[in-house]
Amino acid sequence: MHHKPSVLVQVDLDGRHIRLVVSGCVTELNHRALCPLVRRARTLAPDIAVVVDLTTAHHVEPAAVDLLRWAAEHEDAVRGTPAVDFVVPAELPGHGTVTQLAGWAGSRRPGSPEPARRAARPRAAPRSRLAG
Q1: Is 0.90 topped by the overall pTM?
Q2: pLDDT tens figures, 53-93
Q3: How many CA atoms lie within 13 Å of 63's alpha carbon, on the beta-carbon side?
Q4: Strand 17-26 versus strand 49-53 pairing type
Q5: If you write DSSP's letter for every residue of 34-78 in order, what string do you get?
Q6: First vs last Cα of the chain: how many Å apart?
Q7: How far apart are CA 86 and CA 38, in angstroms?
Q8: Most CB within 10 Å of its CB: which of 51, 116, 124, 131?
């Protein structure tokens, strides 16, 4: 399974609120991919409210959330902008369930027969129409 985050950027029509909706996996190793997006969102307009929404992510490591918060407060802080809000589910989704389901979906039981394959049907020759 690939540990990649996917981000959807939602901008309100008034341009005062930006929501980064993160899906996929957010880990200690790949959390840095989100930092430039947060920084860019904070610089679009003065006094813009940025929200990072992790509720749709499949896998979130607690260390990644801590590192993201620290980076937003220290490294990626933009002078004159409000703090970044993080929306995190009450219980962070673990990777075990996703891995078990992914491994189960593509595997067959030992000793089970191969799936039956359909025989290719012979194709009829295309008909031509003569103008006349």
Answers
A1: no
A2: 999 998 889 999 999 999 988 876 777 778 899 998 888 77
A3: 4
A4: parallel
A5: THHHHHHHHTSSTT-EEEEE-TTEEEE-HHHHHHHHHHHHTTS--
A6: 61
A7: 11
A8: 51
Token pair in block for residue 36? 């430039």
Q: Report residue 71 as tokens.
A: 């980076």
Model pLDDT, residue 98: 43
- What is the spatial distance between Cα 88 and Cα 31, in angstroms, rounded to a whole number? 14
Spell out the residues 6+ positions from residue 99 whose beta carbon is closer than 8 angstroms to its own.
Answer: 1
Question: Which is more confidently placed, 70 or 95?
Answer: 70
Task: Output the six-digit token pair for 95.
Answer: 């990777």
Three-class secondary structure of residue 96 per DSSP: helix
Cβ neighbour number for residue 11 with a 10 Å cutoff? 14
